[in-house]
Amino acid sequence: MNTSKIKHPLDQKKVVVIGGGVIGASWAALFLANDMRVVINDPQPGIESKVRVYVMRAMLALQALGHGVNAALERLSFEPDLAKAVADADFVQENGPERADFKSALWATIEQAAPARCLFFSSSSGIPASNQATQMQSPGRLVIGHPFNPPHLLPLVEVVPNPQTSRALIEASLDFYRALGKCPLEIRKEIDGFVANRLQSAIFRECVYLVSQGVITAADLDSVVTHSLGIRWATNGPFLSFHLGGGDGGFPHFVDHLAPGMETRWREQLESTVHFDEATKKLLVEQIENGYGDRSIAQLAEARDEREIAIINSGRKTAQ
Amino acid sequence: MNTSKIKHPLDQKKVVVIGGGVIGASWAALFLANDMRVVINDPQPGIESKVRVYVMRAMLALQALGHGVNAALERLSFEPDLAKAVADADFVQENGPERADFKSALWATIEQAAPARCLFFSSSSGIPASNQATQMQSPGRLVIGHPFNPPHLLPLVEVVPNPQTSRALIEASLDFYRALGKCPLEIRKEIDGFVANRLQSAIFRECVYLVSQGVITAADLDSVVTHSLGIRWATNGPFLSFHLGGGDGGFPHFVDHLAPGMETRWREQLESTVHFDEATKKLLVEQIENGYGDRSIAQLAEARDEREIAIINSGRKTAQ
């Protein structure tokens, strides 16, 4: 161990990860790679070995992203009793079942048992903080920290406070995820699906429409995206892209000259009929089998992780 | 010049680029970097120096992408007379004004003057080939080759034949763009906006909705995308992403368990009201000024090109 190394701001801080499934285990790996002590709280039998296997694999990715992972697994432990687990925690990252009643009872227990300094985050992609905090004394303490899968790899964390959360706590939440090397973004209103999943849903409707109409195959549509919009959006988001798409006139030019045509297209797109009916489901499943059936899910996932790491690393080398 | 170099399949082939604006000049640079002879046909005064300036700048990007650009500019010439320009052409790439009447007359002239071997491509993003070919003897000869801006950089070319185009000509069109190092994808039905622009339009409606509702700022939404969906979609398209998002069950699991929730969200999203009205336009322009106003369009475009090149190059180093 290099003792001259500057201490990580989260060094030896204790984070309790509730739920040792894929999301929880991925968070655990990220926390460990940031020098934290990690306690997994999950009553499921055999959880220890499952989490350890996932964490060891994720460590390879984290190393490829430049994290030091020395002695990381020595800081990982398991505590099935929730109150004991959070008794001296600095942070809680919850990844339990997506049921409001379950989460409400959970947070009431956590609030009782955890120290006042402890920050509370839920990874939920669907249940807003205000619906989870109904049994808490101080509901404002609970904040959504919604990662993008897999959490140890993709930088985004959607930070969604509830209306009672203080500005100071929002800033502390953003600071926590920044200290982990993530890119936390504040969502200013509770809304179903937050931002990233709503965008994904909106584009996917058009994807299903185009394939169901026979305009393009599913695998070719994937290639359209990876060779155009994906590269563009890994570089600049939609607004900045149209700011530059407007030429010297920038976004004001776009909005005056190109937006009206887009609004006409919106009307047409809204009128289209798209459903996951049996025929559509069958068509999509067949096309995906045709396009990707020669490789296993594990092989495809490994190729994805490798490529995503390369893109993230290439960004670090580029002057932004 | 290294005489031992294997000759490019397009070496010394003649391509006529109609229209020397940004799209035409970008195509010209790509063609030159692939050892072709390029003739620009554009009656606009001063077009020569404009195109040369653009091409020289684009050559730096093409070099960064691994293209040899030796003596490229010596193969660039200008011919304002359309019939003369196409007389011995192997390929035509048209980038004229987006007006069906203009293009119809243009293609009638080109068909008369060009050799029978010549392939005809239009860069149009909006006017299907069948609407441009109304005055041609053999309308099936005209195919859309729609690039993604900037054409010399982003790999996608949407190849959109018209119903009269032969299978052999579709394959020859795909081969041409592949020989240029592009990723051509066949669009199987003529449809307004083809594929990439329809997807972009669908997602942008939700972007405008979220910002207009105060859920997130425009610049933060851009960051959400670049740090999550952009990286994902530069790696895998939407269908493959959900194939992997379904875990071991793959896309069939997604379609049975997650798609119903997405369809519910579609209904909610379709009911939302989004217009480019004056208040929305003002809000968006202000937010983009706040987010990006500290840099010029040119600075932002240069940063974009640099980042896109890094992403494309990182893909070449990754085993796919």
From TrEMBL, chains A, B:
Belongs to the 3-hydroxyacyl-CoA dehydrogenase family. This is L-gulonate 3-dehydrogenase. Keywords: Cytoplasm, Membrane, NAD, Oxidoreductase, Phosphoprotein, Transmembrane, Transmembrane helix. InterPro entries: 3-OHacyl-CoA_DH, 3-OHacyl-CoA_DH_CS, 3-OHacyl-CoA_DH_NAD-bd, 3HC_DH_C, 6-PGluconate_DH-like_C_sf, 6PGD_dom2, NAD(P)-bd_dom_sf. Its main location: cytoplasm. It holds the Pfam family 3HCDH_N. The record marks H146 as: Important for catalytic activity. It is found in: Cytoplasm. GO terms for cellular component: cytoplasm. Residues 14-189 form the 3-hydroxyacyl-CoA dehydrogenase NAD binding domain. The chain crosses the membrane at residues 15-33. Its EC number is 1.1.1.45. Residues 193-261 form the 3-hydroxyacyl-CoA dehydrogenase C-terminal domain. It comes from the Bacteria.
